Sequence to fold (251 residues):
Amino acid sequence: MNKLKTHKIVRNKPRHKISYQAGYNVWGKKRLMRFKRRKWFRAKMGFGHPLNIHPFHNRRSVKKLFGERLRARQVLRKVYGKITKRQFKRLFNKSEFGHSKNQTSFTGLLDRRLDAFVLRLGFAKTIFKARQNILHGSFKVNGKVVKAPSTLIRVGDYVSPNENVWSEIFTTFQKRMKITQHRVEMRSRRIKSGRNYRADRKKRCYRPLKLPKYIEFDYKTLTGIVVHHPSLSETSYGGNVNIKSVREHYG
Fold:
């Protein structure tokens, strides 16, 4: 019973509260800029604003450095769906920064988690939605339904939607392809006409995702395959994540 309570405390927290605790916009979302309450002011201003700089920032005390590294670790851990400290430390030890002698990238291991991989493929808008869909059995790994978001996808494994959500995801990708084709046509028309004005604003719609280099995707079967181990340069984040501080925190 205590494990269930701890599980709920770790997972069920407001997503934008993470930005409030970190002191800056972690997710890179524009929605945070529309918050009017006074407590969101520091998070909206970011690192470079004078109010977010400590008056004794230049002294770089040990306590200050520890706080920055601890914050970087918390932010990276929560970006990947608020994973537990034990799971985060286990992946760190398996990477090039940990005790193992291999050259596996730490962010590559995080990106090869099933929930993060589903997000990269575009099957979900957020990491939390991807985690929820996996727990409901909406995706298959190598043809078998997997309900564990922490499952590591190896090189050569393929992920595809289950039959209960296949039609929904297919219509989503169909909309994205139509929107992409329309934007390319409008851009070519503006170049030929020599006009520099922006196209008319469209309604909110799905945007096509740029897949990383370590993923190959088949649009006919909606199947994503891991080609090679992802490196640090192939993982991108919408917000501001400091991997160096995370390494120094455990170092």
Notes: Residues 92 and 98 are 6 Å apart (CA to CA). The two ends are 34 Å apart (CA to CA).
